[in-house]
Fold each of these.
Amino acid sequence: MPEVSIRGVRKSFGPLEVIHGVDVEIEDGAFVVLVGPSGCGKTTLLRMIAGLENISGGEIAIDGQVINRLPPKERDIAMVFQNYALYPHMTVRDNMSFSLRLAKAPAEVIAHRVARAAEILGLVDYLNRYPRQLSGGQRQRVAMGRAIVRDPKVFLFDEPLSNLDAKLRVQMRAEIKELHQRLKTTTVYVTHDQIEAMTMADKIVVMRGGHVEQIGDPLALYDRPANLFVAGFIGSPAMNFIAGAVEPGGFRAENGALWPLGQELAARHASRMAIYGVRPEHLALAEHGLALEVQVVEPTGSETQVIGQVSGQPVVCVLRERLAARPGASIRIAADPVHVHLFDAESTARIGTG
Amino acid sequence: MDATTAEAAAVTWRLARRPDGWITRLFDYKPFLIGLCLAPAIGLLVVFLTYPLGLGFWLALTNSTIGQRGHFVGLANFISVLDDPVFQLSVFNTIFYTAAATVGKFGLGLWLALLLNHHLPFKSFLRAIVLLPWIVPTVLSAIVWWWMYSPQFSIISYILVNVLHLRSTYINFLGSAWPARWSLVVANTWRGIPFVAIITLAGLQTIPPSLYEAALLDGASSWQRFRFITVPLLLPILSVALTLSTLFTFSDFQLVYAITDGGPFNTTQIMATLAYQVAIPGSELGQGAAIAIAMIPFLVALTAINYFGLARRKWQQGPANE
Ligand SMILES: Nc1ncnc2c1ncn2[C@@H]1O[C@H](COP(=O)(O)OP(=O)(O)O)[C@@H](O)[C@H]1O
Ligand SMILES: [Mg+2]
């Protein structure tokens, strides 16, 4: 039985509907990431699970029980807020034990659980400090500690890393993932950062404008994006899109360039108007490829990112070779037809790959 | 200048460092700036605070009367004042008046602020209404209260007797000691509520809503959220309000002067009204000044208690790690 079931959930603020019927099943112990651009309704959905917003339509069940009408404290969930929401007037210890003290847990239980959480999170030396005396990463850990000590059925995270600097973000990403592997508590994690989603999730839910665009494991989303939006959202740098039509010999871009296409795909969609998608990492140098006029070369050491134009069409490619080309030079590139996607020009749904 | 030379000038022009003039250097000189900025404030303090206060101290040490410049008598005024039963009664009255009115103001003001902090219809209108007692000139509101407490024309008595039929006689609010004291406390409370309500409302709005949401998820009931989140986070600002409010109430003059003028038989005489009565109608300037000066230790003690007891909380201290 799934731990959390979201069935046909809608949310309106006054006359404005911002979530338009969302269905998600979250298995027991899974790490599910809700990802999507800012304003797509991720936080709202999370707050409905937590009980901080009422549910305008549909239902949410935790452990088989519909919780639409249950107050937050009876839902057995814990949430880590984007700004951490630590109680400034309580020490780290008191912040973490607040829920247990309210529940009148025995003193030994409280002491034991706080000690264990502090140990897991490396906060043992900071238990008597106040939040303002902690660094961003430590505050983040206290917020997680507050969730851990309760041993809830579900953890909810709302963009927990967005207030940290880039290096700390990578570190905390790993720590949260490791924590989940250790505790195996069902987790719903909200982020707008697709890299966080890809690296952390067992299952990703891609949202846009209050709709679910696609649900799947990270590599499925990468390999088989349901539509143009998911294809462009997942993966960095983003997939190249080229508008045009299918021809017997390949894909004819509007500007005339002929892009390679698998024969089977070309036959199935003969002369159809479509959008051709290829990821930058699936472009490679090729002797008889298309001419790419180089504009910017960004070597990262392990690979080289080249930004340029093919017959006036902007194209990004990530090459494994180190490239001596200067801006203004021309190189020849080709797409690996196995990794090429076609999207319908009207509906933007993916109609074929390979 | 034609377009090309203008363009060339625009391209070649560079920001130049020019040496600072002596005025710039003077204004960059920190001690000078500090002196310059503090001078007006210090001047005002000397003229409007130190001089009257010093004169008050000096008068308290002399046997001056109105129209006659007295000479130094040491602490004689203080000794005779401390022995005076009317002064002792006025100290009791002042403390009672301050304590009772402060409890009333803070109880009701806090309650009002909590109400206004919720999403009420006509919120800004209600806030404006709440401020009214504070905006009305004190003397005007004192006269209105005096009218309401009048033995013949009191609207309170009228409602109780003629409308609700709960009593058969009009109440003599100001005719005897305790009813008169409580009447003054009610009037002062009414006047002080807006101050407390507005300050605590501002304090309430600085508490991030996410703290309440976190507490809600942690299982706190609404009473527990008030007790464990609102109260501790409001304490620093409450203590400032408490300090100011007790100081204002302790040194109040207008309400008492206008409503009871210390009567009946000095039973509502507070230190400020007594000081005035002795000094001006009684013309004993030295004695009156001594009574007024006797208020200072109380005011200092009140401030110290509030400041050290409430103002700085441990969680606000220590180096921040931002
Ligand atoms: N309390 C609210 N009142 C009105 N509209 C809201 C409220 N909260 C969120 N919204 C709207 O709902 C949409 C989704 O918001 P949100 O869930 O915060 O997005 P996300 O977390 O994905 O960035 C946004 O368009 C936002 O403006
Ligand atoms: Mg959000």
Amino acid sequence: MKAFYNRYGFMTLLTREIHRFTKVSIQTILAPLLSNILYLAIFGAMLQTREVGIDGVSFLNFLVPGLTTMGALMAAFQNPAFSLIAQKFQSTIQDLNSYPISDVEKSLAFILGGTFRGFLVGILTYTATIPFVGSQISNPILFFFSICVTSFIFASVGLVCGLILDNFEKMNFALAIVITPLSYLGGVFFEVSKLPGILSYIGLINPIYPLVNITRYAYLGIYEGNIWVHGIMALIFLSVAFITSLIIFRKGIGIKTR
Amino acid sequence: MLKIDNVSKTYKKGNKEALKNINLDIGKGEFTALLGQNGAGKTTLINILAGNVQKTKGIVTIGGYDLDNNSLETKRIIGIVPQEVGHDYVFTIEEMLKKQSGYFGIKNNKNYIDDLLEELSLKDKRKVTARELSGGMKRRLLIAKALVHKPKILILDEPTAGVDIELRRSMYGFLNKLHGEGTTIILTTHYIEEAEKLCKRIIVIDDGKIIEDQPKEKLMGLFSENTRIKFEFDYDINSSDIEFLEEYSPIIKENRELQIKVNKSDLSKVLRLVSERGLKFVDINVDKPKLEDIYLKLIRH
Ligand SMILES: Nc1ncnc2c1ncn2[C@@H]1O[C@H](COP(=O)(O)OP(=O)(O)OP(=O)(O)O)[C@@H](O)[C@H]1O
Ligand SMILES: [Mg+2]
């Protein structure tokens, strides 16, 4: 079977995945944006004077790339995950089997739809921080690229979760028990090296840690640890997430009955 | 057009053998009914064709394409109206059908979508979401969705469940029209008279096996001795009056009604005899064999 078979069909599916969240943009875009601004306002008010480890950057400046990355990855995860669960809920999930669109194209449509939403939330989060800290970015291209890669990885994870989980409760559970803790321990709000004892090692297997750090490097221009190691880690997470999602889609888990 | 060779299905869950060695060959333009009791395996068979269920064994060829090796090509050929009603509630009917066309690579399908909405009496609902449709309308929308890419084979899994009589009639007209245009149609239904009215070939599936597969006329011919004639009289008749009908197993009911069973070929002979003997009936009722009776006989073995 060909990997790319029906480009217009693929584009239609991708557009649908985007259309689906733009139709309810208050929940999907505005809500995460508001909660991120809230973080910034609260932490900003409380910890204005505190300076963090790396070269005495203000905490707010430190926070911006963290929040941007977290906003992006949450939104990217949720798009394919909730789209698939909703389709299971509406019993339209099997419609996917009736389209003459290849499995690779279908997976990519879901993942890129999620990537787009993640990117959008990331960029808007960054934009919302401008009044607080100004707009300077040390390396804008790397900054936006890093948000894209982060979104792509977590859209792939979201696709996997949407396929293997069968209801909203399980999905919220996965979010609360895995994704949220990983973000908190992934250096969004503080440097991972400042975590006590064993928790500091979680950074080594936490896919969010290198992503946050690369985004932060792109934003601040300064870095904790080795950027190349983190770059390679990000690449590995990207490949694993993407290939896993392709395999699970191809197997028909959650879509076809065996 | 559609060829099913030795297809079996055992569901992983419950280890249920739902289909046992199904063989079927359906030609271009046929209009076939797939009948069978609840749980007989009809939906399982259809879901295999749709790619929703993975078969355990066997080969399926759709329009010359192998289902396992060329599954994407088969999708352009079939359109499936599923038994379970489900719709997207985010998009309006029109958006939904436009997207549905897009999945099949069709760019501008507005005219055909309009035709479909007209045929299925959904035109005035085009701007609302499926949430605002009644049950019967939702089912008709499933048909529209299955047809946007003009499939050569249309498979309908109980399309008329919950659709009111008038709309059901108009749906029959529509199906006949599609059949007339050369579409191959397979229809599953529990309304047997629907199959009798529409279909040319009857397949009965029972406990995962095909137990009957005949042209409708032939199947009904097999049971033609069943023709029952009822005469009504405005005076009492007694058994001596009707001795000459002995061989047609006559029954007198409430003194004024006579029932006999006649083979089609004897029909005119019997009527002539009745009038020659001076039996003056006021009403006559010919009960032709119904597919329903035949069907019930078949599934009760
Ligand atoms: N997903 C499934 N997992 C396990 N068993 C199943 C599954 N779907 C159907 N079955 C079983 O397979 C058998 C055939 O079911 P199927 O849905 O094909 O029947 P049907 O002929 O369509 O019946 P109906 O007229 O009620 O729609 C039944 O015994 C059913 O319980
Ligand atoms: Mg069924």
